[in-house]
Structure formats: C-alpha cells, structure tokens
C-alpha cells in the first residue's frame, strides 16, 4: 500500500512537471510577480503599440534586433543585440517575461532571440496584452523609467539553423523542416513579392495552430497531437521557419516546452532560401 502511494505521488509530480514545462506564464501568476525585482516584463511590439502597455514593462521592439541586409529580418550580431537589450534594462540574470499584442508571433520571436543569447529564464505571457486587459490588470501610457544595464550574451548556437544545415536536412530522416506559415503561403497560392512556395520536403503547421481562439497556448496533449500528425516527433531535429522566421519562434517555444530537445530556427528563413535561384522551391 505504501509503495502504491509513493508511486501515485510520483505520477502526480511527473504530471505537474509536464503541465508546467512550457515557458508560459499566466496573467494571474505574472500579477503576483509585478513587484519582484528579479522579474522584468518586456513588450516585444513596436513603439506605437507600446503607447498602451503593461505597467512597469519596458519596450524592446523585435524589429530593432534585425539587420535587413543582406537578409530581411535576420538578427544582428549578438553583441549588438545585447547592447540594445541592455539599454532597456534587460539582463540575462533576471526572469524575463515577454508579451505582444496577442498574436504570439512577436513575443515568440523575442523569446527565441533571448534563448539564442543564452538567457536561462524567459517566459511568454499567455494571451498577451488582450488577456492582461481582459483580466483588468494595470496598464499605462507612460513609458517605464529605465536604468541601463549590461546584458552579457552567452550564445547558444544549438538553437540556430543556417542554410547549409537546411540543405543537409532535405531528405534526411533525422530531420524535419517545419514551415510555420499559413497554408496559402506554403502552397504558393498567396500573393507574394518573392518566389512562391516552400522549401522542398518541409511540412506545414501554421503558427496560429499552436494557439487557441483566445491566443493562449494549447495544452501539451493538443500540441503533441498536432505535431505528431505531421511527423514532427521528439527523436528528430526540428528546424522551424517562415518567411522571415518571426512566426517560427512561438512554435519553437511550444516544441521545447513539450521536451523536444533538438529544435532550431532557420533565421535566414524562406526569404533567404528563395533568393538563390539554384535553391528549388515547391
């Protein structure tokens, strides 16, 4: 009987760990941490959207961290991104909570960038600003006073895929290329200023499908079913991308939260891939 109880407790603890494995924080839990000096809230959207923001949050627009030449929206060198983050008081030794206007894509992008830079404790606010407002939590139009800090990057190259690895992944059973764009972009039926289609061999899961109707991350069971239905399994190296990989970040987070250990973002994305005529598209 005693052994049975021990086993049951173990199972409960395991299930609790599984449920909380995602780097997601609820409105209720973030509310409790508002005065915690070790928690920093970061708005990942534009300066215009920051005009109404979570009280106490700082603004680091995801687009400020990009070089647009030669690859559109590719990230800047690590030291340059670190300076931008530090100028807004962001340091790697804090728990960093990122949020956006509710799409999840900008928060997911900044989440991935911070993980690439080696920040160990990064979370995404579930539901973003709309969820915060819906729960009548404090918002303001006044910019948060910022004390500049030093962000020390410890780059984790394991979460970044470059074009040579993407080429290696094609037809390789150890890899899955995961296109996170809507189906019409993936198929090439959407209007586009660049070559239409997708990287040959990639599978398609629209990034919106990892979120529910309210913009909250779906349950682990729902996510696992979604990914496995497309052959995206934990034993493979998963390379996520979209046109510029802004939308790939939230999918990266969802996969990592499920315990997938080999997940990367192709930062050059479809934009880089299609720019070379010899790279085929489907």
Quick structural summary:
With 282 residues, this protein is an alpha/beta fold. Helix content is 32%, strand content 16%. Strand 13 (237-241), helix 9 (248-257) and strand 14 form a beta-alpha-beta unit.
Q: What does this protein structure show overall?
A:
The chain has 282 residues and is α/β, with parallel strands linked by helices. The chain folds into two domains: 21-155, Rhodanese-like domain (Oxidized Rhodanese, domain 1, 3-Layer(aba) Sandwich), CATH 3.40.250.10; 158-275, Rhodanese-like domain (Oxidized Rhodanese, domain 1, 3-Layer(aba) Sandwich). The chain is 32% helix and 16% strand. The chain has helices spanning 2-19, 27-32, 78-87, 105-116, 128-134, 163-169, 183-187, 220-228, 248-257, 269-275, and strands at residues 24-25, 39-43, 53-54, 58-59, 66-67, 74-75, 95-99, 122-125, 139-140, 160-161, 175-179, 203-204, 237-241, 263-266. Strands 1-8-7-2-4 form a five-stranded parallel sheet. The chain has a five-stranded parallel sheet with strand order 10-14-13-11-12. The protein has a two-stranded antiparallel ribbon with strand order 3-9. Strand 5 (66-67) and strand 6 (74-75) form a beta hairpin. The longest helix has 18 residues, at 2-19. The radius of gyration is 19 Å and the shape is globular. The chain starts with a helix and ends in a 7-residue tail after the last helix.
């Amino acid at each position: 009987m005693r052994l049975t109880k021990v086993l049951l407790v173990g199972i409960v603890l395991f299930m609790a760990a599984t449920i909380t494995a995602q780097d997601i924080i609820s409105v209720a839990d973030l509310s409790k941490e508002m005065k915690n000096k070790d928690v920093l809230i970061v708005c990942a959207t534009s300066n215009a959207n920051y005009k109404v923001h979570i009280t106490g949050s700082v603004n680091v627009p995801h687009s400020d961290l990009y070089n647009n030449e030669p690859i559109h929206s590719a990230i800047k060198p690590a030291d340059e991104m670190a300076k931008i983050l530090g100028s807004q008081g962001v340091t790697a030794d804090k728990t960093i909570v990122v949020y956006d206007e509710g799409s999840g894509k900008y928060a997911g992008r900044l989440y991935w960038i911070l993980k690439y830079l080696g920040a160990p404790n990064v979370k995404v606010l579930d539901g973003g600003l709309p969820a915060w407002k819906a729960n009548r939590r404090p918002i303001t139009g006044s910019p948060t006073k910022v004390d500049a800090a030093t962000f020390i990057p410890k780059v984790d190259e394991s979460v970044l895929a470059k074009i040579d690895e993407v080429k290696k992944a094609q037809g390789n059973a150890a890899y899955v290329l995961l296109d996170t764009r809507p189906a019409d972009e993936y198929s090439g039926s959407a209007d586009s200023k660049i070559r239409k289609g997708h990287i040959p061999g990639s599978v398609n899961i629209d990034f919106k499908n990892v979120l529910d109707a309210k913009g909250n991350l779906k349950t682990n069971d729902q996510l696992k079913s979604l990914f496995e239905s497309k052959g995206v399994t934990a034993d493979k190296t998963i390379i996520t991308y979209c046109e510029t990989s802004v939308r790939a970040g939230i999918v990266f987070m969802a996969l990592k939260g499920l315990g997938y250990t080999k997940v990367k973002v192709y930062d050059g994305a479809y934009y880089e891939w299609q720019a070379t005529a010899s790279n085929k598209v489907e």
